Each structure stands twice: as C-alpha cells, then as structure tokens.
Fold:
Amino acid sequence: MTQLYPQILVGIDTVRRSWRARRAVEGVLATAAVALFVLTAVTLLDQLIDFGMFGRAVLALVFWATLLGTLVRLVAPPVLAVHGDDYFAAMMEQRDPSLGNRLINALQLGRPEANPAVPPRLAEAIVADGAAAIDEFDPASAVRDAALKRCALALAVSMLVAAAYFTLAGPGATTALSRIMMPFADIPPFTWTTVTLDEGLPERVLEGSSVDISATVTRGGASHATLHWREVEGRERAMRLTPTGADRFSFTLGPVGRTLHYHVTAGDGRTRTGTLTVDPRPRIERIDLTLQHPAYTARQPERTDASDGHIQALPQTNVTLHVHVSKPLESMAFALDGEAARAMRTATGDTQWTIDHTVTANGVYTFTMHDTQGYEVSAPQRYTISLAHDAAPRVAFSQPARHMQLRPDEGVRFEIVAED
Structure:
C-alpha cells in the first residue's frame, strides 16, 4: 500500500457519507409526502362517513402501516446499506466521465493484495494519479440528482393539499384527525349541530314503565329533534320529540316491554347511543290452595293445585295459599280489603311464598311483591273469597206419605230422608 492510498479511501468515504445522507433525506421527504397524503385521505373519509370504532381503527392502521412501510422501504435501506469502495469509485467515474478508470485502478492496485505482477513503481504512479483525481473531484456531484427535488416537490404538493383540506373543512377536519389518531377514544364525529342527551336519564326501568327521554341542542340550533330507538332484534322506530324550552326537546316513551337502544338526532347532529335496560316485572305464575275444613264437617283437607285463586269455603275454614312467582323476591305481602297487609313467608326458595288465612267473611285479596332489584309491584289480579252457605240438616219421612190409622195387629213401613 502506497502512502497516497489512504487519501483515496478518505475521499471515497466522504462520498459514501454524502450519498447515505442524501438518500436518507430523500427517503424522509418521500415518506412524509406519502404519509401526509394518506393521513389527509383517511381523515376526509372519516369526516364523510362514520365508520364506527372498528372502521376508525382500520383507517388508523392504514395510516400507520403506510408510514412504517415507507420508512422501512425508503429510509432504512440507505442508512443500513453496506457498499464497498469500488461501488462508490464506479459511481464517481460514472458521474464524471473524465475520470476514466483512474479511481478503480488506484483502489485495486493500492491494496495489499494487489496483483504482484504489476511493477511497484507503476502501481505507485497509478495510485498517485487516483489521489490527484480525488483531490480535484467534488463529492457532492457524485450524489447530486433530481430525486431530491422530486421528493421535495411531492412533499410540497401533499402539504398544499392537506392545508387546503384542513382550511376548508375547518373544525370538522380537526375532529376527524383526532378520531383517526385516537381510534379507540370516545370522540363523536363533528357536526355543525351538537345535540346531547340530558343528564340523569334512567338506565334501567321496570317492564311496563314509561320513560321520559330528553335532549338539548347546545350548538347550531334546530327547529325539531327526533328520537330513534330499536328494541333487541327489532326494527328501528322514530318519533319527533316535543319542544319543552329553548333548544330542549323531550318525549315520553312507553310503556316499554324490552331492552332498547336509542339516540336523538337534530339537524346533522346525533347524540351518543343510550341503552335502556328493561327488568322483568314479577308475576304470579300459580296459586295452590289447601283447605282445612271446620272440624264439625269431618271432611279431609282439600288441595287444589294451579287454582284460579278464588276461594269458596265454609266459615272458619283455614286456607293455606302457596304462591309461585316468576322471579326472586325480597318479600311478599297478602292484603285483604279493609285490613292491613300481612307478610308472607317463603316456602321453597325465594320464588315460592305461603300464608294461612281463616275464612270469616266475603272479601277480595291482592298481593304486593318486592323483588331483589328494588322494585315494588302490586299484582293486578284481584281474587275473591266467598262464604259457602251452611244450611241446617233436613230430616223428613218419605213413607208413609199420608196419615194412617191402624189396628193393633197391623204393621207399617217407614222411609226417612236426611239432607245436609
């Protein structure tokens, strides 16, 4: 190796660093141009169409995949590339044809493993000529081309398009951008009209109840608002709300029978989707009756399963009511007209309840149920208690059917009929 050979290597290394820096800058500019264009496109899509959280996640994935892909494709290769000295020497000679093969020859003959057949003095002369060529060469000219200008122009165009879109779209574009950058955040789409559900609306109600749904327009103003709701596995229905004040609307929905999802629209605005969970109403499914008749009747206890609940019995009959209900209860009460309600006791679990009642007069009774969810419900059914008439026993002679006069030696046949 001659003393001038390191000078050649320094010049080659300078070109290598310039090439790597320029290609990295080109990659960054191209990546920024593509990523900005894609970001503008997906932001516009989100503003035009509400894809929901999943759709926003897909749009965000498209943007980030584009950004990372272009970085890997355009920036990483020049940064990580490993090219030998001959590569850059050939590139320099290609950019400056006047160099001929002076750099390649100098590199190859100046190495320790150079061809020993070449006389040393000739090799030194070729290396010296290569070193002189390096001194006269401008390293920037070896890497200068139109690619950097094209990448810069592409970025300028993308920035112009993005600036025009965000300027014309205004706050809608800013909101859409936030939704793309944070796809799983609860950010509603931008609308010129903002309508919100009022605070404190119920989330759970008892089956058969009516619910007041109210909403307020907080921006943009609207002459009317519409309530949209859909029951589980049902079709969507809509009803216009009633104005109740300045930019405030309400509607009484019900009676509701199944869980439903609802929202309110006004202008181009839409509220979040609310869910109204409908809890089933406790119901009486079956009443079993056991009658203990008064002792003087000498009758056995009488049980009636799945009765209609109406009681007809003799005075002083003790009636045991076994009531089966549709859902667990905290408590259950039996109420006879004109008397205070009496607590019932559980029979088996918290869906079967029982109570004893002694029949003394005609009346009507009802039940009140307090379930484990805190609802208190009076059963709509009214059951009657009717006294059975206990007439006195009747005894009569059916034979003989008329008065008779008999001699002392005559007989007669008697027939006696008894009814009770």
Summary: The chain has a mean pLDDT of 87.
